[in-house]
Design brief:
Elements: E1 8-13, H1 18-29, E2 34-41, E3 49-52, E4 55-61, E5 72-75, H2 79-91, E6 95-98, E7 129-131, H3 135-151, E8 153-162, H4 169-183, H5 215-227, E9 234-241, E10 248-256, H6 262-270, E11 275-277, H7 289-292, E12 298-305, E13 312-319, H8 323-340
Parallel strand pairs: 1-2, 1-5, 2-4, 5-6, 6-7, 8-9, 11-12
Antiparallel strand pairs: 3-4, 8-10, 10-13, 12-13
Helix pairs in contact: 1-8, 3-5, 3-8
The chain binds NADP nicotinamide-adenine-dinucleotide phosphate and 3-(2-carboxyethyl)benzene-1,2-dicarboxylic acid.
């Protein structure tokens, strides 16, 4: 079955945000068949317009009545907004592809990365919600899935270098203004982030939990297990916000059950969907956030034997967090849903 030629009635919740705006662009770029497009945000930006296929579409205030006649909702207006409005959207008959952490770990909600576990979408009728994982989890599992299939990953140690776009539009503005303030000798006043983000690194994303990890770090632990359908995988993450606008980078160290050479891992990754290997260190070629920004792949480089494990591999994984980490992954889910489930 292909995508319905007459199109789908789509709504974007949080359309004026960093993620929502990119969703609209990705729908257009990929030629997703949109029969009608509803752009929803808070009262603050109701009445503003966003361009879609050359026409200005007016942003409407999100209410319980926003979903009449809508088939697919792409949601990225924050976890509490999804908690509040996803049930109304489901009751109106829509399927919600939710980019927030609100429902990801609920057992009757599929958590999907199309290159990794597209079959999980089959469970969508239970709640009519499909969750999109956290950006840092998505890029990591796209790269690790083929290695897991080949050698079974037992343990993952990951440190992230996450860009400010992951914290929304105002967070990016804060990096910009603090950079200018610091360079001009003005006082730097943190607002969105707890400390200055310009010329700094903050080992603090989302809130701290009793076990000493942050919620962002525990998303990587729990979501990875759910997506790879292996609750025994051990994951330890340190998630760090860095003064980068677009693109998350990750230093990833894995221990596998069976030995896997760096050359074999490279071959598997070269053939993996959604992955591009950039790994010629002698030529100074490895992935960077600036190169990844605005593009779709998950880039992997610095693939090498990890000296600290018996069967260990180390690598560097980079992707545009707003595209594959959020908007692109959500639109790819919509494509699978439309193609395989919505007649
Ligand atoms: P953002 O740039 O701050 O945008 C937030 C969006 O939500 C805006 O469109 C805003 O509309 C809307 N909104 C906020 N409160 C609302 C309300 N009460 N009712 C209706 N709309 C409301 O943030 P972002 O970076 O795009 O992220 C948005 C959410 O997406 C995050 O909170 C997170 O849950 C999720 N996210 C997921 C990933 C992922 O990894 N999958 C990555 C980043 C973000 P106004 O213009 O009216 O304020
Ligand atoms: C990425 O409403 C909120 O607190 C959203 C915070 C947030 C999330 C989240 O928890 O949904 C900001 C940025 C995410 C995410 O993808 O998990």
């Amino acid at each position: 079955m292909g995508l319905r030629a007459s199109g789908y009635r789509v709504a974007v919740m949080g359309a004026t945000g960093a993620v929502g705006n990119e969703m609209v662009r990705v729908l257009e770029e990929r030629g997703f068949p949109v029969a009608s497009l509803k752009l929803l945000a808070s009262i603050r930006s109701a009445g503003s317009t966003i361009e879609f296929r050359g026409a200005d579409v007016r942003v409407e205030e999100l209410t319980d009545r926003s979903f009449d006649g809508v088939e697919i909702v792409l949601a990225s207006a924050g976890a509490s907004v999804s908690q509040r409005f996803a049930p109304a959207a489901a009751a109106a008959g829509a399927v919600i592809i939710d980019n927030t952490s609100a429902f990801r770990m609920e057992p009757d909600v599929p958590l999907v990365v199309p290159e990794v576990n597209p079959h999980a979408i089959a469970d969508y009728p239970k709640r009519r919600i499909i969750a999109n994982p956290n950006c840092s989890t998505i890029q990591m599992v796209v790269a690790l899935k083929p290695l897991h299939d080949a050698a079974r990953i037992k343990r993952i140690i990951v440190d992230t270098y996450q860009s400010t776009s992951g914290a929304g539009k105002r967070a990016m503005e804060e990096l910009e203004s603090q950079t200018a303030d610091r360079l001009n000798g003005r006082e730097v006043l943190p607002k969105i982030f707890p400390h200055p983000i310009a010329f700094n690194c903050l080992p603090h994303i989302d809130s701290f939990l009793d076990n000493g990890y942050t919620k962002e770090e525990m998303k990587m632990v729990n979501e990875t297990r759910k997506i790879l359908e292996d609750p025994s995988i051990l994951v330890s993450a340190t998630t760090v916000r860095v003064p980068v606008f677009y693109g998350h980078s990750e230093a990833v160290h894995i221990e596998t059950e069976r030995p896997l050479s760096p050359a074999d891992a490279r071959k598997l990754l070269e053939n993996a969907p959604g992955v591009e290997v950039v790994d010629e260190p002698a030529e100074k070629r490895y992935p960077t956030a600036i190169d990844a920004a605005g593009t779709d792949p998950v880039y992997v480089g610095r693939i090498r034997q990890d000296l600290a494990f018996e069967n260990g591999l180390a690598m560097w994984i980079v992707s545009d967090n707003i595209r594959k980490g959020a908007a692109l992954n959500a639109v790819q889910i919509a494509e699978c849903l439309g193609r395989d489930y919505l007649s």
